[in-house]
Design a protein that fits this description.
Elements (H helix, E strand, L loop, with lengths): L3 E7 L4 H14 L4 E5 L2 E4 L9 E9 L4 H14 L14 E7 L4 E3 L2 E3 L8 H10 L4 E2 L3 E2 H11 L4 E4 L15
Antiparallel strand pairs: 1-4, 1-5, 2-4, 3-4, 3-10, 6-7, 8-9
Length: about 180
C-alpha cells in the first residue's frame, strides 16, 4: 500500500545518521520500502528546554497493517535508546505514523491521521514538501494547515537538502 507517511524527529546524537540508519534497517527487515524522503528540517525543542530537533518525513510502501508497523516503529525507537517518559523530552529518534493512504483510524494507541499533524509546523513542512496536494482525511487540505502554522510558528527551517547517510535509494522530494 502506498500513500503512507512516516515522521522522523530527534535531538540527541547524530540525528540525521540515525534517521538514515533507521529507514535502512526497517527497510532491510521488510517493514516497508522507502519511496521518497523530505529534506531535513530544524525546529526548537517543543514543550521543554533542550537542543534543537531535526525532522523529516518519508513516504513509504508496506503490506503490513498500521497496527503492526506502529509496534515495529516503537520497538525500533527503544532499540535506538528512546526512553518514553511523562511529558516531552530529548530523544535520539521519534518515529510517527502520520498518514495512512487517506484512511482514518481511531482506536486505542493509534489515531490516523496523526492528531498532532495539523498543529505542528515541524511535521507539516516536510510533509508538504513531499505532497503539497495532500488532504488529511477528516482534517482538510495540508495547504490550509501549513498556511495557518506559518503565521503562528516562524521557528522551523530547512537544514539541508542532502542527508549525510542516504536512507536508501529513495529520491529527495525536490530532486
Amino acid at each position: 500500500m502506498t500513500g503512507i507517511y512516516l515522521g522522523l524527529g530527534g535531538n540527541q546524537g547524530d540525528v540525521a545518521r540515525t534517521f538514515g540508519g533507521a529507514l535502512r534497517a526497517l527497510e532491510a527487515d521488510n517493514w516497508f520500502d522507502v519511496l521518497r524522503v523530505s529534506s531535513l528540517w530544524g525546529s526548537p525543542a517543543w514543550g521543554f528546554e533542550g537542543p534543537d530537533f531535526l525532522n523529516a518525513v518519508a513516504e513509504i510502501q508496506t503490506d503490513h497493517t498500521p497496527q503492526h508497523l506502529l509496534a515495529a516503529l516503537l520497538d525500533f525507537e527503544l532499540q535506538c535508546g528512546r526512553q518514553r517518559q511523562q511529558g516531552m523530552s530529548s530523544r535520539p529518534i521519534d518515529l510517527d505514523l502520520l498518514v495512512w493512504a487517506g484512511q482514518r483510524f481511531d482506536e486505542p494507541g493509534l489515531t490516523l491521521p496523526h492528531p498532532g499533524t495539523p498543529t505542528r509546523r515541524f511535521v507539516l513542512e516536510p510533509l508538504y514538501e513531499l505532497e503539497p496536494g495532500l488532504v488529511l482525511s477528516g482534517l482538510g487540505p495540508i495547504e490550509e494547515h501549513i498556511r495557518s502554522q506559518r503565521r503562528i510558528d516562524p521557528h522551523v527551517w530547512r537544514v539541508q537538502t542532502q542527508w549525510p547517510v542516504s536512507p536508501s535509494s529513495a529520491p529527495l522530494a525536490h530532486s
